[in-house]
Specification:
Elements lengths: L1 H8 L10 H8 L9 H19 L4 E8 L7 H13 L4 E9 L12 H10 L5 E4 L8 H5 L7 E4 L6 H5 L3 E7 L12 H8 E4 L10
Parallel strand pairs: 1-2, 1-3, 3-4, 4-5
Antiparallel strand pairs: 5-6
Length: 210
């Protein structure tokens, strides 16, 4: 498995931008139960892995978009991504891991629209691009100029744009659920996910603010 090998030869570190969603989960201790410690760090990856496999009809190739920055190692993030890969099943494979160098200047997005377009072009033959960093803000013209064909984007960090769903760029995204009960102690990964997150699809993206 390409990702498992990658995890053990790389140093996963805390990322100040696109991984904020995931890092908040790990910093908060997950479900707050020692018996569910594994689920609290991997449930997000497991559920989204299954959702991605379903999006692809149970077969295809996936590219992971990640970033390494800062000085702290994120073991929780590594477990989340490993759980994601395992949940994809036997017929959906991670074919590559694209490791971005993020910009850290105040007021700038973590990476540019041009770089996003280049990544989509580089992996045009992949079926899905799963991003663990938040995407840059794209103008209508920049969205129009994105390469086609391109992989379906699954967004694991940051707030997605309604336009990216309408223009068939992003197909799945995950957001924290308002008013989620952090004291709940779910017994399954799906229950843990449902208590804290909402899955955004093209059908539900109309509720997004922009």
């Amino acid at each position: 498995m390409i990702l498992v090998k990658y995890l053990f030869i790389s140093r996963w570190r805390a990322v100040p931008f696109g991984l904020a969603l995931l890092m908040a989960v790990f910093a908060g201790g997950g479900c707050g139960s020692k018996d569910l410690a594994a689920d609290s760090t991997a449930a997000l990856g497991e559920v989204m892995g299954k959702q991605t496999a379903e999006l692809l009809g149970g077969h295809g190739t996936v590219v992971l978009l990640v970033s390494e920055a800062g000085n702290e190692k994120s073991e929780g993030l590594a477990k989340t991504i490993a759980a994601f890969e395992q949940a994809l099943g036997k017929s959906v494979n991670v074919s590559a891991v694209e490791n971005l160098q993020l910009r850290t200047l105040p007021g700038l997005p973590p990476f540019s629209p041009q770089k996003f377009s280049e990544v989509l072009q580089k992996y045009a033959t992949a079926d899905a691009l799963v991003s663990f960093v938040m995407l840059p803000v794209l103008t209508t013209e920049e969205v129009r100029q994105l390469p086609a064909p391109r992989p379906k984007v699954v967004l694991m960090a940051g707030v997605p744009s309604k336009t990216l769903f309408v223009q068939q760029v992003v197909y799945l995204a995950v957001l924290p659920k308002p008013g989620s009960d952090s004291d709940a102690k779910p017994r399954t990964a799906q229950a843990w996910f449902d208590s804290r997150y909402q899955l955004i699809t093209p059908e539900t993206a109309t509720a997004l603010a922009y």
